[in-house]
Design a protein that fits this description.
Length: 411
């Protein structure tokens, strides 16, 4: 349910979008999107040069693939129930592509380039049964001519059954991804590293050349995806001329996205306060998790100084309360923006709830919300959403019947 302690405010993003689009079209210096837009640019592999403010970090990638449609739009978001003089803007990483949409694309641009450089003929990754990352990895792998092996965790009751074709599974199975199911209990008992190592060993014995991608694509190399995203935001701000963000809000699931954003914001001219809304685990886990990510790049920074972790997991990972799903529905009806139930929906619900409970904390702040995609996950919640969805009716055609009778009389 949308918190109701603040009045509904509606903004129109159209002017901002037109202005931004016109500026980009006329600014040759803004070349972030130029490679993908060129014929033959999309799916190409190109040398990577980091932003100047990130050049001292370690593990700078040598290349990346062009897999996404960047830059993604930033526009004002007409979220309901905002504190006085608070502006919320949204970065549409959900529009980075279709099958490949979401925050995983940015990480996979670097991870797939590394897999190809190492001579891999297939990739392995792991996630939940409706993992956006696993679906995106399956698509990206096919884009660069690699096979994909997925280890998906599901309930103990369903682990021995056909997983079906719902949501992300439909895309993965259409692509021919190899799927191994484990129970959530087994996933917790053995851990993702042991499970991927086991599958890697079996593939090596068959003469394959597997490349393992960590869950969520979150590792030191994958972090560069959102370091690069900060450069993109920086350039968009420079072009706008009159927008500066005080805060960045994003869902936090495997830590790589929030780590890249926090590190990039701190090192760049952005200097926005980054808030990660955890959809699993507790804040202590993610402070340590982000610290591991930024230590891997030898940043010398403290995670507690560059990011704030907020709890938004609710009932638990990929589990939705009735209020959370009603919020997703209400935001879609009010703004036209469809959030996913696992990540962006929980993060938006969490930040709006905090804004309404602590309005002075957010008063007069300009907030950028990063939409991390995941639309296909909604299909897994159809039963819970059915009572919330818009109504329908059989069209009344009685007037046509009367017209038909009148014509017969005239004839």
């Amino acid at each position: 349910m949308v918190p109701n302690t603040c009045s509904l405010q509606l903004y129109s993003p159209h002017v901002a979008i037109r202005r931004w689009t016109s500026t980009v079209a006329n600014c040759a210096a803004f070349n972030v999107s130029s490679t993908a837009a060129q014929i033959g640019g999309f799916l190409s592999k190109k040398p990577y040069a980091p932003p100047s403010w990130a050049s001292d970090l370690s593990l700078v990638p040598s290349h990346n693939f062009i897999l996404g449609q960047f830059p993604t739009l930033i526009h004002k978001w007409n979220l309901p129930n905002l504190p006085k003089d608070t502006e919320v803007w949204i970065k549409r990483d959900d529009l980075a592509g279709m099958e490949l949409s979401g925050n995983k694309v940015r990480k996979l641009e670097f991870l797939m380039a590394d897999a190809v450089a190492q001579g891999a003929d297939c990739v392995i990754t792991v996630g939940g049964i409706q993992s956006n990352h696993c679906r995106a990895t399956a698509v990206a792998a096919k884009y660069v001519n690699l096979d994909c092996y997925l280890i998906l965790a599901t309930s103990t009751l369903l682990v021995d059954e056909d997983p079906g074709l719902v949501g992300n599974l439909l895309v993965e199975r259409l692509l021919g991804a190899h799927i191994d199911l484990v129970s959530k209990r087994e996933f917790v008992k053995f851990g993702s590293v042991a499970l991927t190592d086991l599958l890697k060993k079996r593939l090596l014995e068959k003469g394959r050349k597997p490349y393992v991608i960590s869950g969520g694509g979150s590792n030191s190399l994958g972090n560069w995806g959102y370091i690069e995203a900060v450069r993109e935001i920086e350039q968009q701000i420079q072009l706008s001329g009159d927008v500066q963000f005080d805060d960045i809000v994003v869902a936090c699931g495997s830590g790589g996205t929030v780590a890249g954003l926090a590190l990039g914001s701190q090192l760049s001219s952005l200097k926005a306060k980054v808030h990660g809304f955890s959809v699993c685990y507790n804040s202590g886990y993610f402070y340590d998790n982000v610290q591991d990510h930024i230590d891997g790049l030898q940043s010398g920074l403290n995670s507690h100084h560059i990011v704030t972790i907020e709890d938004a997991k609710g009932l638990g990972y990929a589990m939705s309360t009735a209020d959370e799903l009603k919020f997703v529905k209400d935001v879609a009806a009010a703004t036209g923006i469809v959030l996913d139930p696992v990540y962006s929906g929980k993060a938006a619900y969490g930040v709006l709830k905090d804004m309404c409970n602590n309005p002075t904390k957010w008063k007069e702040r300009k907030v950028l919300f990063v939409h991390t995609g995941g639309f296909l996950g909604l299909y897994d919640k159809v039963d819970q959403l059915s009572s919330l969805a818009g109504s329908w009716r059989r069209m009344d055609l009685e007037e046509f019947a009367h017209l038909k009778m009148a014509l017969r009389k005239v004839a």
